[in-house]
Amino acid sequence: MKILVCISNVPDTTSKINFTGDNKEFDKNGVQFVINPWDEYALTRAIELKEAKGGSVTVLNVGEADAEPNIRKALAIGADDAIRVNAHPKDAYFVAQQITAIAKEGGYDMILMGKESIDYNGFQVHNMVGEMMGIPSVTPAFKLDMVDDSTARLEREIEGGKEVVEVKLPFVASAQQPMCEPRIPNMRGIMTARTKPLKVVEPAGAEAKSEYVNYSKPEKKSGVKMIDAENAGEVIKLLRNEAKVL
Amino acid sequence: MSVLVFVEGLNGEIKKSSLEAATYGGQVAQAMGTSATAVAIGDVNEDALARLGEQGISKVLYDADDRLKQFVADAYVKVIAKAAQQENAKVLVFSNSNIGAAVGSKLAVRLNGSLATNVTELPKMDGGNFIVTRGVFSGKAFADVNLTSDVKIIAVKKNSTDITSNAGNTATVEKLSADLTDAEFAAAPKETVMQDTSGGVLLQEAEIVVSGGRGMKGPENWHLIEELAKELGAATACSKPVSDIGWRPHHEHVGQTGITVSPNLYIAAGISGAIQHLAGVNSSKVIVVINKDPEAPFFKAADYGIVGDALEVLPKLIEAAKALDK
Description:
Chain A is an alpha/beta fold. Chain A has 6 helices and 15 strands.
C-alpha cells in the first residue's frame, strides 16, 4: 500500500501572532515552526497502517526550504521518503493543484492530511484534491481502518454526530483526533532520517484564486470585572442586566 | 446573475447556522442589486423553506430525493452546481460547517471559483475587488482576502451573522431535480449515528457554552457543569487536558486543536486559559472565568472573573440562574 501524507509547516500552537510590513505579512521573527498538529494524526496513522499491512509512506510538503527541518522530523517519525514542492503556498487552490500533480504521478492508494492547518484554517485542500482527482474525500475522519486490501472503513465527524463510510482505494481523507496517538521521533529514527531521500521539485503551473491583502488582530478586551466568590451569583444578574446575554 | 445560498436541514427545520448563511446571502444580494435564491436538500419541510423569505431569500429550489436525507458529498455538489447554473449564480454562500465547507471546496474546483471559509464579515466590493474578512491563526487574527475568480464562494463562520427576520416575507418554493445516478452515491455513508442531544444543545451552534477544565477535579463533578448549562439553555464543553485524560469525550474539546466556538456567552470553570484554549474561544462575545488561581491567564481574556474553587462557585451560579425570570 502506497500512502501519501501531506504536511504543513506552521507556527507552534503557543506562538504569539504578529504581522509586519504594514500588516501585510506574517512576522516569522521569534516564531518556532512545527508539523501542523492535525497532520501528525495523518502521519502517525499512515505509519501504523504501513507497519500492519506493508507498503510505504511518502511525505509531501508544498513550501519553501525553511520547512525542511520539519520534513526531516516526519521522516524521523517513520515516513520512508519525502517530496517538497518548492513554492510559497499561495492559497488552498494552489496547494491542492500541487498535491494533485504529485499524487497523479505517484499512483498512491491513499492521500492523507490533517483536517486543516492551524495557521490558515481553510478546511479546503482535502476536498479540492478529491474533486480534482475524481476520487472520494472523507473529512474530517477520526477513525481509519482497512476492511480488506482494497477497501477502507472510516468514521467522520458531522455536526452532532458521526458517519461511517466505506470507500474503495484510492481515496483522500483528512484526520483529526482521536485517530491515533501522534508519535515523536526516537534516536534511531532521527539518525536514519538524515539519509532518507528528500526530493525537491518545482511547482506545476497553477494559479491562486485568492489574494491575502491585509491582516488584523482581534480587539483586546477592555478589562475584567471581578466578582467576589461569596456573592458569585451576582454574575448571573450582571450577565442579564449589563452584558444582556441571558 | 444572482446569489445562491445552500441551507442545511435537521429534523425538518433549517439549522440556525443556515439561517445565518441565508441572512448573509440576502444582504450580499441587496448590496449587489440582485436577488438571493436558496437551495435546500433532504430533511427539511416546505413551510420552513418558505419562511426563508424572512432572511431575504426570494426563491428556494428544493431537491426532495429521499437518498439525500443523509449527507453524500458528490450528490450534494451535483444538485448545488445545477442550481448555480440555472440561477447564473456568481456568489455562493454556505455555513462554515463540516458539510458546507466540504461542498464549497468541491464546488470551487467544479465551478472554477474562489473560496473563502471561516468568513466573519460581509464583503467589501469596490474597484473590481471582492474582499472578505476571515478568521486565521486559529482565532488569533483575521485576514482580508480578495476573491479574484468570476465565481465567489463564501463559507460563513457560525454565530458571526445576526439573523434577520422580516415577518411575513415568504419565499416561493420550486422543485429541483439533478438527475442523480448511482455514481454520486458510491461513497455514501453506511451508517449515521447522531449523539443524544435530547434536551441538550449542539455545541457548534450554541449561543451559550458552559465549559469545565481540570479545576473540576474529576468527571464525578460534571453534574455541576450540566446543571448550569441546563438552566441557561447552554451546551457543555471541556478543555483539552480533560478530554485527553478521558473525563469527557473528544467531541466536547474546545480549543485550537478541537472545536472552535463563538457563542454570545462562554463560561469557563476551572480552566487556566492556555493560549491554545483561548484560540478556540476568544471570538466569544462575553467570557466569564472561574478559577481559584488569581494569576490564571484566562482572566486577561475575560469580561467577568471570579476567584474561587469551581466546585463552590458553580452551585451559587446554578442557584442564581434558577431564580432568573425565564
